[in-house]
Write a structure and sequence with these properties.
The protein is of the alpha/beta class. The protein folds into 2 domains: about 5-155 and about 285-375, FAD/NAD(P)-binding domain (3-Layer(bba) Sandwich); about 160-280, FAD/NAD(P)-binding domain (3-Layer(bba) Sandwich), CATH 3.50.50. The chain has helices spanning about 25-35, 70-85, 175-180, 195-205, 225-235, 310-320, 355-370, and strands spanning about 15-20, 40-45, 60, 70, 90, 95-100, 105-110, 135-140, 140-150, 155, 175, 190-195, 210-215, 240, 245-250, 255-265, 270-275, 280, 285, 340. The structure holds flavin-adenine dinucleotide. Flavin-adenine dinucleotide binds near residues 23, 153, 154, 155 and 170.
Amino acid sequence: MNDSMTTNDSKQKSLRDVIVIGSGPAGYTAALYLARAELKPLVFAGESWGGQLMLTTTVDDYPGFESGIQGPDLMEKMRKQAARFGAEIVDRTASKVDFSTKPFRVWVGGPSTALNVTSSGRAQDDKTDSESLSVLSSEKGEIYRAKTVVIATGAESKLLGVPGEKEFMGRGVSTCAVCDAPFYKGKEQTYVVGGGDAAMEEALALAKYANRVGVIHRRDTLKSSKIMQRRVEEKKNVEFLWNSEVMEIKGSKEQNKATGVVVNNNKTGETRELPMDGIFIAIGHTPASTVFKAQIELDEKGYIVSRLGLSAKSVALARDHLNDMGILEYPTMTSVEGVFAAGDVVDFRYRQAVTAAGWGCMAAMDVEKFLTGTMSSW
Ligand SMILES: Cc1cc2nc3c(=O)[nH]c(=O)nc-3n(C[C@H](O)[C@H](O)[C@H](O)COP(=O)(O)OP(=O)(O)OC[C@H]3O[C@@H](n4cnc5c(N)ncnc54)[C@H](O)[C@@H]3O)c2cc1C
């Protein structure tokens, strides 16, 4: 770490120590820890702040709330807690980043693009000479500069795009059985949509609670591994609806919940409306990493590679960063030194609010150590 990277750099007062991009449990927890470490984080929360929990109702598995808490209430509490310690939270989207030179640059406003890096390692874009301001103007948006960046942009569940799906999300429609399956204990009929391993995992989770689970799949064979398929087939309360496509999710405005699913058999052409208590969409996730493409390493599915990540690329990155004592340095750091990542944009395995918050905490602590250069003393 050279002098220009220390927190007390007087020549570049307006240069930020750290920018956090994203505002789910990972982003707000990172902001909380960074603010309490007096690093005055600037948080770009996005135009629709709060992340995935804004889409749900009761959250029963976040520790500390013995009677559960509504998802949006939890996110508001996290946001206020980070702000209480001085995190500066701006509800704008980071549209572009340049991690090819230090300090890093983050654009807000202007069109969202993945900035390409030339063979010389410099980003192709309008350069401005002023190095003394943290906020610079450009036709393509405002530019903020920071010594470190925490990316916590999360992921989005892929949706079917059928009528009723968004309307009843969190009210009979879910994308997370680990989170919501217990709410269906003793319920008569539930469905899972999808044919991959994720869908099989959802079906197994749901089969523990609901009386009956139907797996709706548009083909006549599954994409999932044989072992997962076998485990689901062994469940007496699970049946498969092959060659079936969801056309609509029906619900009751009075009861404020989904009550049925309209399914079309793409072989016979028959359309039926099936009564149900709940439906789980399990057709995959999309990590919010497009803006960072070509700037940091992503895995095959677009998740950010970090030293603590779960893919082979992440494990390889980790191996390259074991210190002399065989200890992994700055575990949440990405392929670019000084850029850290946390939560569902890295984690395709656990995808929970509490794990995302944990990642945010770890990234913040790594940033603090990185800025002060004290990691080796651990
Ligand atoms: C319907 C539903 C119910 C769930 N229920 C539960 C539950 O009960 N318990 C549980 O533990 N987990 C639950 N989860 C999972 C949990 O919500 C996620 O694991 C968690 O929110 C991930 O947190 P995160 O901070 O990584 O990202 P996210 O929550 O995805 O937040 C990322 C945020 O970053 C913003 N962002 C993205 N790109 C940019 C950008 N370029 N600039 C600025 N901001 C940006 C996004 O708008 C978003 O607000 C549920 C998920 C869903 C979808």
